[in-house]
Design a protein that fits this description.
globular, mainly alpha, 3-stranded antiparallel β-sheet, single chain
């Protein structure tokens, strides 16, 4: 069976693969969060043994507490909240974890036609940077955020906008570099 002609266009293949991967990654995270949260279709086995969402939350909390302690603050966490003495509590919910950003970034990198090694290095380093920036956000919010004084400001939206700009800039540089390397290889 012959493929339709539009599949021969690399831009079309990229876009379809990107949309498919993003949809799978994004919805799988939501589905997995649902089945590892008590109620509904809760799976105790997955929640206890394979809960990457809870593990990511704990890693981000642990890193944030460590940074805050380095900065001289008394900080602890209780698996879902960051508590800083004299500053208050920061609840770290599902939307704080950056899984939507990671889904977008991962889908783009995996769908883009470039060498596997380049994809893996960029994917891993990009996810690490996203999460390091997330820890920085938690630390800054823990120190400076006041729910009473900042009701109008939605730090989730601001963080997402900043991260999407950083991701877009990073993807642009990565694509230009890969296209340049592909052009050099083609000439040789």
């Amino acid at each position: 069976m012959k493929r339709p002609a539009f599949f021969n266009n690399p831009a079309t293949r990229f876009m379809l693969l990107f949309i498919l991967l993003f949809t799978i990654f994004y919805n799988f995270n939501i589905f997995f969060f649902g089945i590892t949260s008590p109620g509904g279709n809760y799976s105790p086995f997955l929640a206890e043994h394979l809960n990457y969402i809870a593990a990511l939350r704990q890693l981000l909390l642990d890193c944030s507490v460590t940074v805050l302690k380095w900065l001289g603050y008394a900080a602890i966490d209780n698996n879902s909240e960051l508590l800083v003495a004299g500053k208050g509590t920061l609840a770290v919910v599902y939307s704080c974890l950056g899984l939507g950003l990671i889904s977008f970034f991962s889908a783009f990198v995996l769908a883009y036609p470039s060498p596997l090694r380049s994809k893996l290095v960029f994917l891993i380093s990009g996810i690490l940077v996203i999460q390091l920036l997330n820890v920085l956000r938690f630390v800054l919010l823990a120190i400076f955020w006041s729910k009473k004084a900042n009701r109008i400001i939605d730090h989730h939206t601001i963080f997402n906008i900043i991260l999407y700009i950083i991701i877009a800039f990073s993807l642009y540089i990565w694509i230009k570099r890969n296209d340049k390397l592909a052009g050099t290889d083609a000439q040789n």
